[in-house]
Amino acid sequence: MISINDAHSGILWSAISRVTIHVFQFITLIILARLLTPDEFGLIASSLVVLGFLNIFRDLGISSAIIQKTDLNDELINSVYWIVIIIGIMMNLVLFFSAHLIAEFYNADKLTGILKVMSFSFTITSISIMHQALLERELKFKKIAICEMSAIIAGSLSAIVLAFLGFGIWSLVIQGLVNAFALTLILWLLNPYRPRFIFSFPEIKSIFKFSANLSGFNIVNYFVRNADYVLIQKYLGEEQLGYYNIAYRIMLYPLQNIASVFSRVMFPFYSKLQSDNTRISEMYIRLVNNIALISFPLMLFITASSDVLLLSLLGEKWSSTIPILIILAPIGMIQSVYTPAGSIFQAKGRTDLWFKWGLFTGVIFVSAFVIGLRWGILGVALGYLVANIITIYPGLRISLKLIDLPVSDFIASFGKTFLISLCMFLLIYFVKISLYPYLTHLELLVLLALLALLFYVPVSFIFNRTRINELLDIIKNYR
Predict the structure, then answer these.
(1) In terms of domains, do 194 and 73 share one?
(2) Quick one: which of 203, 220, 198 has its CA closest to 66?
(3) Domain that holds residue 255
(4) Residues 6+ apart with CB under 8 A from 240
(5) 181 and 249: one domain?
(6) At what angle do helices 4-35 and 170-190 cross, to 10 degrees?
(7) Same domain for 229 and 147
(8) Range 308-312 contact pairs with CB under 8 angstroms and sequence separation of 24 or more
(9) Which of 177, 338, 445, 466 has the fewest CB atoms found within 10 Å of its own CB?
(10) If you average pLDDT over residues 137-153, what whole number do you get?
(11) Predicted confidence (pLDDT) per residue in 273-309, tens digit
């Protein structure tokens, strides 16, 4: 029988993994941003869009079906394993032989070699997808954390060393391959599962509906979430995409991964409680509030200090990203509390509803990007913000209805967190504009960070103690 401590343990280890990953990724970003050019970051961003799309087809949602399925047998596990291997090799070959066509689409000849080398990551990662899915199903997030942290450290160190040696953009390419190889190797070492030559079409058919709808949503969602990258690269050029990419990574990537810590753990947890809406609702409110405790102040701090943050850490050449960060901040806050809703759709077996919702929102987001393109990267960012504002309420209503949770109750639950974070934002902003002429960018950034902590933490303990205690419970009660 699973308990709240199982969830606490999974969240804690996932959080440890994400914090470690982001520390190394952020340090790597700072170092590489000073050694590489915006054009090179733009090229890598374009290649990652292609890789990310093909990555959706790695297992066609089958591994998620393995986690969600209540009755699991050895025949199904091994059948899925061999399908995933075949798909991985196919994706490798497709990307390798179509690299030149993709490069022609982007008008970037350099992409051909980059994509050919990156294509081998599909074969490498397919070998261990089932190993990771089984660990997640069994809530073994400590082992997963060890695998992910080790892989990201290996990849980051390789990129830094190669960049210093003058490999340029290839330091980023090799980073991805090292990361994939290290993750696969360590998953095999920590998971005792070893595949057998067994295959059954009836077993695969039993999970086809779930996996097909999940894959459909992932495909639509990926096209939508990366349409901005494609449009900017195609019509505004690599340099503009480089600026946009840095802003996106700083603002949204950390936030989405804070939320994904909870979503990743709660999907298998909810799957074991599929019929208990009351318990799922209580857990959902509690855990999303833990996300808000971290994401709200973080996003508003970055917004208030965006100029000193970028100029002190990345340098003057990245100043064009400052207004983009300011526009993307509300998106980071919205997605940090909405992203976990996906685990509800999956756990309740309603990937069909999730797919339909993805199709509807896709039209809105892509339209917003196309319209915004007329005003450059700032217009695209603003279109992204408007699309999020339009879709957030109906999206919450559809997902929360599955667990009988009123949207008003959900939003009210993190009202105090938002107000405290907003007060911190105002304090940081006025201190920044008052001291800007007298301190260096780095000195001002350190001062603002200390001031934010000294304000937010004590005030939260006084006026938002219930939520703070819930977050502390996760740390205290893990196993």
Answers:
(1) yes
(2) 203
(3) 209-479
(4) 42, 232, 376, 377
(5) no
(6) 160
(7) no
(8) 308/432, 308/436, 308/441, 308/442, 308/444, 308/445, 308/448, 309/250, 309/445, 310/250, 311/441, 312/440, 312/441, 312/442, 312/444, 312/445
(9) 466
(10) 82
(11) 556 777 778 878 887 888 888 889 998 999 999 999 8
Same domain for 331 and 185, yes or no, is no
Number of C-beta neighbours around residue 72 at 10 A: 16
Residues 257 and 281 grouped into a single domain: yes
Contacts 24+ apart (CB under 8 A), 86-91: 87/57, 87/58, 87/59, 87/60, 87/126, 88/58, 88/122, 88/123, 88/125, 88/126, 88/127, 88/129, 89/122, 89/123, 89/126, 91/54, 91/55, 91/57, 91/58, 91/119, 91/122
Q: Tell me phi and psi for residue 440, to 5 degrees.
A: -70, 165
Q: What is the mean pLDDT of the chain?
A: 81
| C-alpha triplet 120, 122, 124: angle, nearest 5° | 75
Alpha-carbon gap, residue 34 to 317, rounded angstroms: 9
Q: What digits encode the pLDDT tens for the residues 170-223? A: 888 888 899 889 989 998 888 888 888 877 776 666 666 666 666 667 777 777
Determine whether 332 is exposed, middle or buried from the number of CB atoms within 10 Å of its CB (0-12, 13-18, 19+). buried
- pLDDT computed for residue 478 by the predictor: 45
Domain boundary pick from 185, 206, 227: 206
Q: What angle do CA 131, 261, 419 make, to 5 degrees?
A: 175
Residues 304 and 186 both lie in one domain: no
Q: What are the tokens at 373?
A: 């393109």
Task: Provide the 3-class DSSP secondary structure of residue 276.
Answer: coil
How many other C-beta atoms lie within 10 A of the C-beta of residue 472?
11
- Say if residue 214 is in the same domain as residue 166: no
Give the residue from 206, 229, 249 where a domain finishes. Answer: 206
Instruction: Band the pLDDT of 1: cuts 50, 70, 90.
Output: very low
Same domain? 282 vs 430: yes
Q: Which residues contact 185 (CB under 8 A, 6 or more apart)?
A: none
* Average pLDDT score over residue span 448-461: 94
Q: Considering Cα of 105, then 106, then 109, then 112, what sign does the dihedral take?
A: negative
